[in-house]
Design brief:
Length: about 450
């Protein structure tokens, strides 16, 4: 049943709509810019190049092209070439799109996708230079029976070097260990004021990746400290707010027990049940005490059973540091990350089509939700999302369906091989089938989006 309290207010709805239009619109504009530049390069006459859709606001003509800004400026844009339709090809002459050689038409058709890929790399490059929040290399759990425990690593150790490589971020730890293939590593960690050296041989174990593929991977048996016992936000009308707690409060004790990690707080609240708890916090240089009674709420566990949980209405601050790089390293990482997301998307689509993993794709509504949530975490994270959307839409555009660039490329390849254009009746049937499949896909993903909202996802 739809929870009305979870519906976003009108102001948030406006923000969602604006952000999704900017996100998708910018992607479409970049795509059309690719077609425009390629058409000009191949000598195709471009009649119109527009930013936005609908009635034009302002326009000017330069040579044979009309450049215009339309009313719905955030809906991307379009590139109208002469001779795109078969009935207009003869009148367009040498400057007509369909009158060009097959491989020229393929070049123009694929250029939109190429531009999206370039734009994705550019956005990733900006993200890596500007910096994103990543976990610090501080050890949390040291699993029993694993190499890290046998070597003597402890909770709270900060990893500062592995195999002569300085460590600043937790993802460096996972990357180095992941590439070790079980070969021993020399790890240096800071414990208090001391630096300690450990020679550790990772254990090889079979584990599932994000695509549910089982592979042998090296493990040390450690996890990072994700959160620190500092309040990042306080929920309205919950016990913590009513008691007077604020963002930035560092929780140092609960019911007389010293707090060092965030899970110490959750354990103490859970153990208190419905009883009053005494929370000691450090606010600036001042020690403060708060008495509050946790709120009882019902949630579903992994087996979909209703269980009681106890909350005071605070969220933790991440144990993070800003990861940023110079232009050259940032570009290298941006290229690698773009390729990773591309490969991951292709494999995911294949596995969904072959039913090896459950379909999990977001439609327009889902993308709007994601864009809204991501935008609240910061502009840089929104750039990362736009980069990923560019990759996904570029790949989607390569599907061999005639409404898309992939379908056109397929037709032009057939033309190149057979030396004749695909008959118009065949193209029309392919177009109708393609649009039917697209509409079905949109309905399917939109239904999934709506069901996630109904279920509170």
């Amino acid at each position: 049943m739809l929870d009305l309290e979870k519906l976003v207010p009108i102001t948030d709805f406006i923000v969602i709509v604006f952000e999704i239009l900017v996100t998708i619109g910018l992607t479409i504009f970049v795509h059309e810019l690719g077609h425009f530049l390629a058409a000009k390069r191949m000598g195709v006459k471009v009649e119109k190049f527009a930013i936005g859709w609908g009635p034009k606001i302002v326009s000017f003509k330069y040579r044979e092209t009309e450049y215009l800004i339309a009313l719905f400026v955030f809906l991307g844009g379009y590139c109208k070439m002469a001779g795109e339709a078969p009935e207009d090809a003869a009148a367009a002459g040498e400057g007509g799109f369909l009158n060009k050689a097959p491989f020229q038409k393929i070049f123009i058709s694929v250029s939109g996708v190429v531009m999206n890929a370039i734009f994705a790399v550019f956005l990733m490059w900006v993200v890596f230079m500007a910096g994103t929040e990543v976990l610090k290399p501080v050890v949390d759990e040291v699993k029993k029976g694993y190499p890290a425990q046998a070597a003597g690593l402890q909770r709270g150790d900060e990893i500062i070097q592995i195999n002569n490589e300085k460590i600043k971020y937790w993802n460096q730890v996972t990357d180095i260990i992941g590439a070790s293939n079980g070969v021993p590593v020399k790890l240096i960690a800071r414990r208090g004021d001391k630096e300690m050296t450990f020679d550790i041989k990772p254990v090889m174990e079979e584990a599932e990746d994000v695509l549910k593929e089982k592979k042998l991977r090296p493990f040390l048996g450690i996890t990072p400290v994700t959160f620190v016992p500092e309040v990042e936000s306080v929920t309205d009308k919950y016990p913590a707010q009513e008691a007077g707690m604020k963002k930035g409060d560092i929780i140092t004790g609960i019911n007389g027990k010293k707090i060092e990690y965030w899970d110490d707080i959750t354990d103490a609240i859970k153990a208190s049940g419905k009883k009053k708890v005494m929370v000691k916090v450090l606010r600036g240089k001042k020690i403060m005490d708060f008495a509050l009674v946790p709120r009882v709420e019902m949630i579903e566990d992994q087996d979909k059973k209703k269980i009681e949980t106890f909350r005071i209405g605070i969220s933790p601050k991440g144990n993070t540091v800003m990861e940023k790089y110079g232009p050259i390293v940032a570009f290298e990482k941006a290229s690698q990350q773009t390729w990773y997301f591309t490969e991951l998307t292709v494999k995911s689509l294949y596995k969904m089509i072959t039913r090896k993993i459950e379909p999990d794709v977001a439609g327009p509504i889902g993308v709007a939700q994601i864009a809204y949530k991501v935008a609240k975490t910061g502009f840089i994270n929104l750039l990362l999302l736009i980069s990923i959307i560019n990759i996904n839409l570029a790949l989607f555009n390569l599907l061999p369906l005639v409404p898309f660039d992939g379908g056109l490329i397929m037709l032009f390849l057939i033309e190149a091989v057979t030396k004749k254009q695909v008959p118009q009746k065949v193209q029309q049937v392919m177009m109708e089938i393609g649009w039917a499949l697209v509409i079905l896909l949109i309905v399917f993903v939109s239904y999934g989006d709506i069901m996630r909202i109904v279920k509170g996802g």
